[in-house]
Each structure stands twice: as structure tokens, then as C-alpha cells.
Specification:
alpha/beta, eleven-stranded mixed β-sheet, two-stranded parallel sheet, 11 helices, 15 strands, 33% helix, binds S-adenosyl-L-homocysteine
Length: 365
């Protein structure tokens, strides 16, 4: 594989500096930024507004794209899952979720994941490696090009969620860098206010994010209302237990705008964490910390080697009622893309069933 600068992860300013090292004027950097991020081109050959000699020179010292799409899966509900590979052979998964009012792209921050949450299939991969800023940005470019055509403006807005494979807060600098690249109005123009990043609870990074001015929304994966149960389901809890985590959330909440809320996610595992007592403990935990939170209940997405079943609808409703009676805002999340291993906790580089496999025709990757 040819080495060289990964241009997809550079800000406009970085690109200007980069072309200046080649003895080119600043406007060429802006041109290349627009080609990559606004026109969403993935090869120098397509950048026909650049002189041929410059394109030849660039291809010697830089790479406009590094991810390749291995396969694409289309769910009965319209969700698309992309299984991609990095230049050095690691899997990267991205999910495009069409919704009535806007689309959501769920991106990965790492290949695999170092956390060992027992209910999540990604955990079984272990950490392969953290993704670069360019690899994060490219996921969004590839998904948008496939959904709408190369460079076509999405008709509805695009929301991003950092809820794919990996722990985003263990790849914090690359993540923030990628978000800065994507926010540029001369490029993808997806501003942090349209982005939600989910963490299993890396407390120091939550506190650090509270001080970032242009920051995304924060979601916390809880999965249990007591340390005893959370230690079992999410071993990261042994490092940062609930008390530390919720104190950090409270600090974060102090910096929110009046109507903003921290989101909590609670995967519902039948007979494990879905009892009435769990609901009461959960409500008390949030209320004791004075958190004005929003709770997303996620029915467990089953996957072969995982020893859990999703809670029944009745149990979920009962759980929701108890939380609501204690003043918590609750939403039950509908699973999307379960049939193609695209739903929460199902990203493990699965090759899927041939029936759902859609041949790649339109992806310039
Ligand atoms: N590591 C980060 C980012 C991943 S977000 C984090 O943990 O927040 C993925 C979300 O899906 C998390 O809220 C996680 O708790 C949830 N999840 C994991 N496995 C799941 C499963 N099998 N069914 C439903 N939700 C699951």
C-alpha cells in the first residue's frame, strides 16, 4: 500500500499548510478540501479542476482515501451496513439509518473494542486498533455517497452518532479532530450540535469534554443501576464506578444549555437488569445525583454467542412506567437493521447472509 498523508482527516487549514510544503498556493489547499469534503471525491483523478501535474505529484505524496468497502448489507427496514477495511486490513463498520425527518449515520471510532461488555458482540473482536481522523471522516463520506450519489447534498439533514464499534473516548483526540473536519461549512458541514457521542464511562474524558467549546452531545451507556451488576456487565465499571460516573455527568450537565440533557442508554436484558426493583434503583440513582437526564431503553439485540434475551414488551413498558413515575424522561428505542447485524451491539464484522447481501455498484471506494 502506498504511504503518504491521509488527506481526508485534514482540516482546511491543515490542507493549506500541506500544499504550501509542496510549493503550491493556499487556494489549492482550499480546492482540495472542497473536493474531498464537499464534492466527496475519493480519487485525485476526479479532481479535474487541479492541473494534471499537481494531481500526479499529489498521488506520490498523499492519499485522498484509505478505506475500501468490502460489502454492503441492506435491511428490510432500509438500514444499510457497510463493512469496510483499513489500508492495513482491519475491519471498520458504519451504519446508515434513514428516518422520516433526517438520516442518522452511526460510525465507528475503533476497529474492534477493548471494553468487555458481556452483552455486546463487538467486544468479542477485542481491540484491533484505533481509527485515524481520516478513517472516521471517510466512513461518513462513503455512506452519504452510497445513499445519495457522489457529492449530492443529503435532502434531509444528517445526524451522526458515535455508537458503532469501539470506545470513542479511548480515541478522544482523533475523534475531536474528525468532528472539526466535518463541521466545516466548506465541507460536510455536520456541526457538533448534530452529533452524539456515546461512552461506556471514561470519566476523565467526560470532564474534559465539558470544557470543549464546540462539542457534541453526550450519551452514557449504563446497563445497570448498581455497581454489583454493572461490574459484571460492563467491567469498565470497576475502574470508574457509578458514583464517579454520575458525578462526572453532573459536572457535564452544569455546562449544558437550559433544554439540553445528557442521554443515558440502558440495554434491557431479560431477567438480568429489567426488574421493577432495577427500575426503582435506576430512578433513585439519577434523582439522587439531581440529573435531568433522558433515558433510552434499548431492547437487547440478540446475537448467537451472547447469553442474553431481549426483555419482553410488557417488561419494557413496566420499566418505563416506573421511571416516568419518578420523573425521568424515557424513550424506548426501536431496533434498526437487526436482520443484517447492524443494530446496537451487533457490529462484529459479520459477513451476513447472502440474501441480504447487496452487490456494490455505486461506491467509489
Ligand atoms: N463504547 C461506547 C460506544 C458504543 S455505543 C459505549 O459503550 O457507549 C453502543 C450502544 O449499544 C451502547 O449503549 C451499548 O450499551 C449498546 N449495546 C451493546 N450491545 C448491545 C446489544 N446486544 N443490544 C442492544 N444494545 C447494545
Amino acid at each position: 500500500m502506498k504511504q503518504g498523508a491521509e488527506l481526508a482527516g485534514l482540516t482546511q487549514q491543515d490542507l493549506v499548510s500541506f500544499v504550501e510544503t509542496l510549493g503550491e498556493p493556499a487556494y489549492r489547499g482550499r480546492q482540495i478540501f472542497a473536493a474531498l469534503q464537499h464534492r466527496r471525491l475519493r480519487s485525485f483523478d476526479e479532481m479535474t479542476d487541479l492541473p494534471k501535474e499537481l494531481r500526479a505529484r499529489l498521488s506520490e505524496v498523499a492519499r485522498p482515501a484509505t478505506l475500501t468497502v468490502e460489502s454492503r448489507y441492506l435491511s428490510a427496514d432500509g438500514t444499510r451496513r457497510y463493512l469496510m477495511k483499513t489500508h492495513d486490513g482491519f475491519p471498520v463498520e458504519t451504519v446508515f439509518i434513514p428516518e422520516e425527518r433526517r438520516d442518522t449515520i452511526c460510525f465507528s471510532s475503533q476497529s474492534g473494542c477493548p471494553l468487555q461488555c458481556t452483552f455486546c458482540l463487538t467486544a468479542q473482536l477485542g481491540l484491533l486498533r484505533s481509527l485515524t481522523p481520516g478513517e472516521i471522516v471517510e466512513q461518513i463520506v462513503i455512506a452519504l455517497n452510497d445513499a445519495y450519489g457522489v457529492g449530492v447534498q443529503p435532502p434531509r439533514g444528517t445526524n451522526l452518532v458515535g455508537m458503532g464499534a469501539g470506545e470513542p473516548f479511548l480515541n478522544f483526540d482523533s475523534l475531536l479532530h474528525a468532528l472539526r473536519v466535518m463541521a466545516d461549512s466548506h465541507g460536510l458541514h455536520i456541526v457538533p450540535n448534530r452529533v452524539t457521542i456515546s461512552t461506556a464511562g471514561i470519566v476523565p474524558r467526560i470532564l474534559e469534554l465539558a470544557n470543549v467549546s464546540d462539542r457534541p452531545h453526550l450519551a452514557i451507556s449504563l446497563a445497570a443501576p448498581t455497581d454489583e451488576l454493572r461490574n459484571q456487565l460492563m467491567p469498565i465499571n470497576k475502574r470508574w464506578p457509578l458514583e464517579d460516573l454520575l458525578n462526572a455527568c453532573k459536572e457535564f450537565e452544569k455546562t449544558l444549555k437550559p433544554n439540553e440533557r445528557v442521554t443515558f442508554e440502558y440495554v434491557m436484558l431479560e431477567g438480568i437488569n429489567d426488574g421493577e426493583e432495577h427500575a426503582r434503583q435506576l430512578a433513585n440513582l439519577l434523582n439522587r445525583h439531581g440529573l435531568k437526564a433522558k433515558m433510552n431503553l434499548i431492547p437487547h439485540n440478540p446475537a448467537d454467542p451472547l447469553p442474553y434475551r431481549p426483555s419482553t414488551d410488557e417488561t419494557v413498558d413496566r420499566f418505563k412506567d416506573i421511571l416516568e413515575s419518578k420523573g425521568i424522561h424515557v424513550y424506548v428505542r426501536r431496533p434498526r437493521g437487526r436482520d443484517i447485524f447492524a443494530a446496537c451491539g451487533q457490529l462484529a464484522a459479520r459477513q451476513g447472509t447472502p440474501m441480504n447481501r447487496v452487490e456494490i455498484t455505486s461506491i467509489g471506494a
